[in-house]
């Protein structure tokens, strides 16, 4: 599995009391809700995507941490980013690089 | 325009305001106003007439109240860039410690504060009736400061104090106070900060304050009838730091 997702430049992931929130700011508030909660694994993926990791690398790394197979992790990753993409939080890198 | 501007200190930082309507200046009655020094080259917080007249129409209030309210949001955004946050709640001090009652508007913050003042007199010192300012110090310590935006009752104080407790209010048929875990309160806490989330820095300031409050300050959930008995339950509970 190849491909990357770009994070919306006006959304940050913040941790408050052990919970994780995607918070939209600036003009992003016109199309996104101010606050959306994600779980710890989601926050991990969000951070990795922000660091420029592609999905394969993310899945491989996360599989080790969360003790699951890379294939299962890939499925979860795709589902997670698909949901975020439909909501407008990320865009898929169509260049496939 | 010279007499329609002043400098004041909000949570230990200087803020300069400029306004269009004379009456707006009167609404800043609770804060100390200093003349703008000659040759002042700093920034002013101000809003254009178009914005506050439109606000007045939407909210059915006077243009002065509208300008005052719009300046509040300007100040909140200004402060959020400077490690200070405006919070929606009624803040009071008791024995040197600050407590904040928070809830959506019309959920009994003012009623509880009024009851506490009636019951406990001078032991309860109002810091701000509606929109106190919070600063985050070393080791996550939060200090609560007054602001000129005091709510419709106009409850304004001059003192500031370290935050010792925060209470989320809900109207109900019984009076029951219980401690809240920080995790449980996280989202509600974030929502109670006042700012327009224009920048990532301001979002981070708010989240850092929310995180500190959730981690270092006792939090309570208080279902209450809004009567005098409920305020006794509240007072005893937050001073003992447990459930009632």
Compact description:
Chain A is an alpha+beta fold and 97 residues long. Chain A contains three helices and five strands, in the order E-E-E-E-H-H-H-E. Chain A starts with a strand and ends in a 5-residue tail after the last strand.
Written description of the protein model:
The complex is a heterodimer of chains A (97) and B (244). Chain A has 97 residues and is an alpha+beta fold. Chain A has one domain. Chain A is 41% helix and 23% strand. Chain A has helices spanning 40-50, 55-65, 70-87, and strands at 5-7, 11-16, 19-24, 35-38, 90-92. Chain B folds into two domains: 2-80, no CATH class; 85-240, Phosphoenolpyruvate Carboxykinase, domain 3 (Alpha-Beta Complex). The longest helix of chain B has 18 residues, at 63-80. The relative contact order of chain B is 0.15. Chain A binds chain B through residues 10, 12, 14-19, 21, 23-26, 29, 34-35, 37, and chain B through 181-183, 185-187, 189-191, 197-200, 202-204, 207, 210-211, 214-215.
């Amino acid at each position: 599995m190849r491909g990357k997702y770009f994070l919306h430049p006006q959304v940050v992931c913040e941790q408050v009391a052990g919970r994780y929130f995607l918070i939209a700011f600036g003009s992003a508030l016109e199309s996104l809700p101010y606050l959306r909660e994600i779980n710890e694994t989601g926050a991990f993926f969000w951070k990795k995507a922000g660091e420029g990791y592609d999905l394969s690398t993310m899945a491989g790394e996360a599989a080790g941490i969360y003790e699951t197979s890379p294939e299962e992790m890939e499925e979860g990753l795709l589902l997670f980013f698909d949901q975020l993409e439909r909501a407008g939080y990320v865009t898929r890198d169509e260049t496939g690089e | 325009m010279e007499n329609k501007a002043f400098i004041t200190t909000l949570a230990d930082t200087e803020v300069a305001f400029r306004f269009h309507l004379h009456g707006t200046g009167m609404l800043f009655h609770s804060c100390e106003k200093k003349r703008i020094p000659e040759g002042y080259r700093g920034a002013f917080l101000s809003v254009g007439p178009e914005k506050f007249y439109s606000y007045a129409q939407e909210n059915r209030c006077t243009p002065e109240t509208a300008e005052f309210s719009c300046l509040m949001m300007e100040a909140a955004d200004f402060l959020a860039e400077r490690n200070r946050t405006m919070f929606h709640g009624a803040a009071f001090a008791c024995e040197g410690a600050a407590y904040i009652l928070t809830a959506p508007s019309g959920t009994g913050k003012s009623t509880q504060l009024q009851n506490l003042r009636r019951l406990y007199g001078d032991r309860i010192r109002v810091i701000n009736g509606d929109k106190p300012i919070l600063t985050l110090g070393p080791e996550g310590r939060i200090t609560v400061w007054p602001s000129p935006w005091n709510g419709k009752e106009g409850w304004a104080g001059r003192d500031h104090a370290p935050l010792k407790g925060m209470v989320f209010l809900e109207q109900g048929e019984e009076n029951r106070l219980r401690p809240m875990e920080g995790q449980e309160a996280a989202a509600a806490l974030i929502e109670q900060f006042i700012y327009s989330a224009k920048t990532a820095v301001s979002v981070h300031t708010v989240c850092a304050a929310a995180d500190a409050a959730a981690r270092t300050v006792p939090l309570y959930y208080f279902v209450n009838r809004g009567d005098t008995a409920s305020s006794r339950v509240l007072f005893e509970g937050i001073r003992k730091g447990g459930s009632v």
